[in-house]
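Notes from hallway chat w/ T.B., transcribed later so I don't forget. T.B. wanted the structure written out for a chain they're using in a teaching module, and asked if we could keep both sequence and structure tokens in one place. Agreed to drop them here.
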Amino acid sequence: MNAAKSSTATATTATADRSPPRPYIGRFAPSPSGELHMGSLYTAAASYLDARAQGGRWLVRIEDLDRPRVVVGSAAGILRTLEAFGFEWDDEVTRQSEREDRYRDALTTLRSQDLTFECSCSRSQLAEEDRYPGFCRAAPLVAGVPTAIRLRVDPGYIAFTDRIQGTFRQDVAASVGDVVLRRRDQLIAYVLAVVVDDAAQGVTDIVRGADLLDNTPRQLHLQRLLGLPPPSYAHVPVVTEPGGAKLAKSARSVGLTAAGVLPPQLIAAFRLLNLTPPPELCEATLVEAWRWAIGRWDMARIPRRLTLALDR
């Protein structure tokens, strides 16, 4: 392959630093696969507080591309819950399902540079592989079956400095291999959609869960190939059950409360973010509680770890 068209640019270090600084735009991007739960509330609060403490804008995007996982009514329920907890977003809510033309344009751009290829491999065929081994780089192994579109990824580390987790680097080729951009069922993959959406919305700062930390180098690589500005990243620890098990989302959903009433789960989210709310804050209004938290926000207080257990 012509070196000018390869993705060996990833062999050099990528960085999410930006200069000069842009006006802060943050976002929260839930998937409508169920009710808003405690882990999502805590992540949303971190994103919201960071934006408001810096005088920035905060957006909400519904990531509903994975149609088999979408629960009918979930998106509306998530938005109602966010409103009930006092979140205020600064623009209309966007939905990925309404933006597919943008993703296909990005695919066309990458294909025109000979950076993608079609792959016929199924999950069962790759079940024994630790990473995608490049079976279909020359041509699909099996003809006449639905194919995915993969991005050619050559060896080389991609590094960035996370505002919470510190320096993180990954050789994407060695860790995951050639990255899926469009699945065999023709649905656009998360990694491409999120890169296109963040750039289109002017997002400058992303605060999200540490379960997406190792996905970030792939996004930085795509941003570079598409000529898109990289945001700053901060990955908060993922909330788990007290014993460290994955959060039982159905049991940890956060319900609606009366208008203006401070939900106890919001105080719990503040505690998880190491804001140490005083007992009297439980008697405050929603507006007062958010004002208190914004005034005391300090991301440096969030522990540099990948998980954080609930107290109970």
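Follow-up for T.B.: The first helix runs from residue 38 to 53. Might be a good example for the class.
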